Amino acid sequence: MKKNSEMGSTTRASTSSNAGSGSNQTVAAREAFQVLLELSKLLNTGLDAETLAICVRLCENGVKPEALALVINQARQGVSKSNSSSNVATNFDAKR
């Protein structure tokens, strides 16, 4: 009878330690993301925390980082061209 109660306490102890490791993993993930965000800022990527988190999730789900970088750069170029086109149109209208 005593052995059964000891086993139950061991099971409970391991279950509670697993719960603790889950929170440890969460803390570690947050710390890793903060380091990644700092690197992103140092490299002047222009990615905010939300966008970087989306990029990380995409990579975790199998998107190739090189392909993701290419898409982001192309999107930025498109936005840049669009903004410069609207500035030209605005300047043209102002000259009339």
From TrEMBL:
Residues 8-24 have a biased composition (Low complexity). It is found in: Cytoplasm, Cytoskeleton, Microtubule organizing center. It holds the Pfam family MOZART1. InterPro entries: MZT1. Coiled coil: none annotated. Signal peptide: none annotated. Keywords: Cytoplasm, Cytoskeleton. One of its GO terms (cellular component) is gamma-tubulin ring complex. It comes from the Eukaryota. One of its GO terms (biological process) is gamma-tubulin complex localization. Residues 1-24 are annotated as: Disordered. PANTHER family: MITOTIC-SPINDLE ORGANIZING PROTEIN 1. Belongs to the MOZART1 family. This is Mitotic-spindle organizing protein 1. It comes from Daphnia sinensis.
